[in-house]
Amino acid sequence: MTLRAERTRNEMTEPRVLPELRLSAETGTIFVHELERELFLEAFEEEDDDAPVTFRAHLWDHPDLPRWLRFIQRGPTQPGFLYGCPLDSELGTHNLQVLGYNRRTFGTVSQRLVISVTPAPGGDAPFQAEFVVGDRNVEELLPEGSREMFLRGSAGVWDRGDLHVINVTSALDRGGRVPLPIEGRKEGVYVLVGSHSPFSPCLLSAVSPQSRSRCQRGQRPLASCYDTFAPHFSIRWCALSLRQVQPIPTTPGPVRGSGVLEEGADFEPPSPAEPQGMVPDFLVTLLVPLAVAALLLLLLGHLMCCRREGLEKRDLQTSDLQLFHHSSIAGDTRELRAMAGSRDVPRPLSTLPMFNVRTGQRHDPMGSARAPLLPP
C-alpha cells in the first residue's frame, strides 16, 4: 500500500477536529464569517493550495442553520461564508458545526463555532435604505473590504458618516431569476444600510412620485448622486427603497445560556403549576357533540316521517281520468300474467337443447316435440 493511500485511509477513518472558535454578533448589524480554505488544508496536510474543499454548516446536533443565518460557497476552490443579521429574538448563544470535505482525499475536518448574539449598543438604526447592486454576486460583497468600499459610496450619497451595513441578501432569495451564462452577468445583491441620521435630499428625490413616474417610462429618476458609487458598483436607482423604523420599547427577555449550571450555583426548579379543574372541559367535549347529534336526529326523523305524502294525498292530487287509466293498465297486466301462467303449450324448438356441453350427448330436437314446425 502506498503512502498516499495509507494517508487517505487514515483521514477517512479518523476525522480531525479544529479548535473551537468563539465569535460575536450584534443585532441590527450584518454578521459575516469567512471559512478559510487554508486553515482546513493545513488540517488535511494538503500541499496543493488548489485542492477542492467543500463546506457544510449546521447547528450542533441539528440539521439546519438558525433562521437568521445563511451559508454560501460558490465552488470547491473558493471560500465559504456564513452571513446574516440577527434580530432581538435571536439573543443568546448559537453553537454551530462546520464540516470541511476534501474532495481529493475524502478527508473530513470538523470545527465548532460558538456565536454570541448581543443587543446593539445604540439600538436599531431608525433610517434604513436598501440599494440594489446589479453587477455583483452576494459573495463579492461579503468580504470586509467590499463592504467598506460600499459604505464609502453610501456616505457620499447620504452625506453622513455613521453608516453601517445591516444586511446583504442575494437577489435570488428575493425571487430573482438566475442570470444567463453570459460573461459579466451577475445575480444582483440587495444591500440594506442604516443610520441614525435622516435621509439626504438626493435619496428623497430618488424615491419621489416624479422619479417613480420617470422610472415607469424607462427614464432615470430625479437624483443628482448617480456617480457616487461609480465605477465600483452599478446601482439600480429605480429599485431604491427607503424605510423609517420606529423604535419599539420591549422588555428584556430571558437570555439563552450554555445550559450548564455554573460552579457553586443552586438549581431553582420552576414552581409547580396549580391544578386545574377538567370537569368543564369534559362536559363541553361530551355534551356539545351529543346535542348536535340529537338535533340532526330530530331533523332527519321529521324529514323521513312527517314530510311523506302518502297514497291518499297523492290520489287526491291526481285526476280521476289518470287514475282510471293507471288502474286499467294494472288490471290488464295482471290478467295477461294469469293467462300466460295457465296455458300448456310445448316449448319452441329454438329453445330445445341439441348438444350437451357437459356430457357430449346429442338429442333429436324433433323427438320431444308434439308437432313439427312445418306441416309435411
UniProtKB/TrEMBL annotation:
Cell membrane among the record's keywords?
Answer: yes
Which compartments does it reside in? Answer: Cell membrane, Sarcolemma; Cytoplasm, Cytoskeleton
Listed GO MF terms: calcium ion binding
Q: Which parts of this chain are annotated as the region Disordered?
A: 251-273, 357-376
Q: Which SMART domains match?
A: CADG
Q: Record keywords: Glycoprotein included?
A: yes
Which parts of the sequence belong to the Dystroglycan-type cadherin-like domain? 22-124
Where are the bilayer-spanning segments? 282-305
Q: Name one GO cellular component term.
A: sarcoglycan complex
Note the topology in the membrane: Single-pass membrane protein
- InterPro entries per record: Cadg (IPR006644), Cadherin-like_sf (IPR015919), Sarcoglycan_alpha/epsilon (IPR008908), Sarcoglycan_C (IPR048347), Sarcoglycan_N (IPR048346)
This protein's UniProt keywords = Cell membrane, Cytoplasm, Cytoskeleton, Glycoprotein, Membrane, Transmembrane, Transmembrane helix
Q: Which SUPFAM superfamilies match?
A: Cadherin-like
Please give the function described in this protein's UniProt entry: Component of the sarcoglycan complex, a subcomplex of the dystrophin-glycoprotein complex which forms a link between the F-actin cytoskeleton and the extracellular matrix.
The protein's matches in PANTHER family, at most eight in alphabetical order, are given as:
ALPHA-/EPSILON-SARCOGLYCAN FAMILY MEMBER, ALPHA-SARCOGLYCAN
**Family designation:** Belongs to the sarcoglycan alpha/epsilon family.
Q: What is this protein called?
A: Dystroglycan-type cadherin-like domain-containing protein
Its taxonomic placement starts with: Eukaryota, Metazoa, Chordata, Craniata, Vertebrata
